[in-house]
Amino acid sequence: MAGSINTRIKDVRKALGLSQRAFCKGIFLSQGFYAQIEKGLKKPNERIYELISTKYNVNKDWLLTGKGMMFSGPAPDVELDKLIEIYKELDPLFREYIMLQINQLLNVQKKTKPQKK
């Protein structure tokens, strides 16, 4: 599955389960410019390759050539990143409530999960 670099960039975005908007926000590109990259109308530059590689843990060799594995290591936890962004926007009182709920859920999970021996 070598394809073009434009296709590989789109493959990364889809593998991460991100919309174009969310993906390009993470690499500081406008959605319009990014959409043109996916369509093959624009060619990404070295800065874009670096940003994708760094932000999303993409193997740069795979990105440029299609050789090797897509990710350099584990794929980034996109859901956790979204959660952190939402959490940062919350009022401190709501943050406190969220932390309380998370701790209660963790306690319930510990009580219902079989213990490893």
What structural keywords apply?
single chain, 117 residues, mainly alpha, 434 Repressor (Amino-terminal Domain), 7 helices, elongated
Structural description of this entry:
It is built from seven helices and no strands. It has two domains: 5-65, 434 Repressor (Amino-terminal Domain) (Orthogonal Bundle), CATH 1.10.260.40; 78-112. It has helices spanning 5-16, 20-26, 31-38, 46-56, 60-65, 78-89, 92-112. With 117 residues, the chain is mainly alpha-helical. 66% of the residues lie in helices and 0% in strands.
CATH architecture of the largest domain: Orthogonal Bundle
Q: pLDDT under 50 segments (min length 5)?
A: none
CATH class of the largest domain: Mainly Alpha
Shape: elongated
User: What's the helix-strand series?
Assistant: HHHHHHH
Based on helices, strands and strand pairing, what is the structural class?
mainly alpha
Oligomeric state of this protein: single chain
* Tally of separate helices: 7
